[in-house]
Specification:
Structural class: mainly alpha
Shape: globular
Helix content: 40-55%
Number of helices: 6
Mean pLDDT: 91
Strand order of the largest sheet: 1-2
Order of helices and strands: EHEHHHHH
Low-confidence stretches: none
Largest sheet: 2 strands, parallel
Radius of gyration: 18 Å
Distance between the termini: 36 Å
Number of strands: 2
Length: 165
C-alpha cells in the first residue's frame, strides 16, 4: 500500500481501511503522492488510497483503475464508483483545505480576504479548473468555516484546538 508519506491522508485512509476490515497491507511510504502513484503505475505497489485530485488524470487516461472513493458520498466526477462505506459500513475519509489567518487579525482584513477568496472561487474559469481536478468548492463566511472546522474536529475526537477562527 503506497502513500504520500507517514501520516499523510493516503496513509491514514489506508490504515483506517486496514483497521476496519482486518486486511493486512504493508505500508510503503513515499516522499509525496506523485512518487507513490508512479510506483503504483509501475506495479511496485498494488494499492494506493490517493486523493482524487492527484489521480483523476490517470483515471481518465485509463492508466489507473479506481475501486471506490473514501468520501461519505459518491463523487460527482465518477458517479458510478461506489464509496468504501458501501461495503465497509462506517468508513469515510476526506481531505479538505481552508484558509486561516493569525488569531488577532483585524475583522476588516478577514472580511476583505473572505470576499476576495469567494469572488475568486466563484469565477467560472477557477471553478472549471477545480472541477477538472475532481475537487468540490465550498464558499462561505469565516463563521461558517469555523463551525465546519469545529464539527469535523469533534467527529474525529480532536475537540476545538483553535478558538473562534
Amino acid at each position: 500500500m503506497g502513500s504520500g508519506g507517514i501520516g499523510s491522508s493516503q496513509h491514514v485512509s489506508g490504515e483506517l481501511f486496514k483497521m476496519m476490515t482486518g486486511v493486512n497491507l504493508v505500508h510503503v511510504p513515499y516522499r509525496g503522492g506523485a512518487p507513490a502513484i508512479a510506483d503504483l503505475l509501475g506495479g511496485q505497489v498494488q494499492v494506493n488510497f490517493d486523493n482524487l485530485t492527484e489521480s483523476i488524470g490517470y483515471i481518465r487516461a485509463g492508466r489507473l483503475r479506481p475501486l471506490a472513493v473514501t468520501t461519505a458520498v459518491r463523487s460527482e466526477v465518477l458517479p458510478d464508483l461506489p464509496t468504501v462505506g458501501d461495503f465497509v459500513p462506517g468508513y469515510e475519509t476526506s481531505v479538505w483545505f481552508g484558509v486561516g489567518v493569525p488569531r488577532n487579525t483585524p475583522a476588516a482584513i478577514i472580511d476583505k480576504l473572505n470576499k476576495e477568496i469567494n469572488a475568486g472561487l466563484a469565477d467560472p474559469r477557477i471553478r472549471a479548473r477545480f472541477a477538472d481536478l475532481a475537487a468540490t468548492v465550498f464558499m462561505g463566511s469565516p463563521d461558517h468555516f469555523a463551525k465546519f472546522y469545529r464539527r469535523r474536529n469533534r467527529e474525529v475526537g480532536q475537540g476545538d484546538p483553535g478558538g473562534k477562527h
